[in-house]
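Example record

The entry below shows one chain as it appears in the dataset: sequence first, then structure tokens.
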Amino acid sequence: MFKSISGEAFLKWRKQMILIGGRKVDFDWLLDMSAGVSWAKLQSIILSPEKFISLDISTDEIEVIWKSHLKDQTPLQYLISKCPWRDVELEVSSEALIPRQETEFLIDIALKKITNFDSGRWADLGTGSGAIAVSLAKSLPNWNGHAADISNEALELAKRNLKSIVPHANVRFSLGDWWEPLKRWRGSFDLVLSNPPYIPSDLIEELEPVVKNHEPLIALDGGEDGMNASRKIILGALNGLSKGGWLILEHHYDQSEKIISFMKKIGMEEVSFEQDLSGINRYAICRRK
């Protein structure tokens, strides 16, 4: 803890930081994640500015981070190397996509599908930071888990997150492209989740600078129609899943109909979709017969 600062001085400094640029909501997120000033604590300071507060890091350090973010739009998550996701705090880096809130719903959907399973085998294809793998390992302690990624750097990041958050999890890490490194366990996966790159190549340039200039292109670009990786994952599920095994993947906001149709075309069963918080068809679900 750094020495106390008066609420009045803190609020004056906060106002100055917001006035130099950026969004207030982002600056307050930074205060919460880096300095320990939660929304509730901030409201308390606003109501009682005469009181003194303690920060986890100095205002000078926060200012350096904020100005670095404003200079070239580097994501705040990368600058402080962490990101909250579901009920955990993940280490993040520019080697992997920053976990999004909408991806959290993959876990909720998955857990509803396997309520009758006491144990089994799951896989997280394209694990990135390991967000999905961490949540599955926490939620399914009796299962065998697999986390695969084509990036060795991302895989090392996922390993650190698993070791830090679920140290005794039974999870194997495999380097390779989607199903390819999991051939040894082909036909034994009861649950497979993935948030693959799904943005059409010609839309990448339209993304916000904070995304397109900093997050790994390999985790964003899904090819001409955005479905290159999704098709590989779905086709691989024909042999990769166990009989009755589930595949659940996230996709672009306008791909639901095509992906659902493709799942049905290749013979998958119980094909359906789920919506995100905005009411958009965002998740495709199918089962191997």
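Notes for this example: Residues 5-72 form one domain. The CA atoms of residues 276 and 282 lie 6 Å apart.
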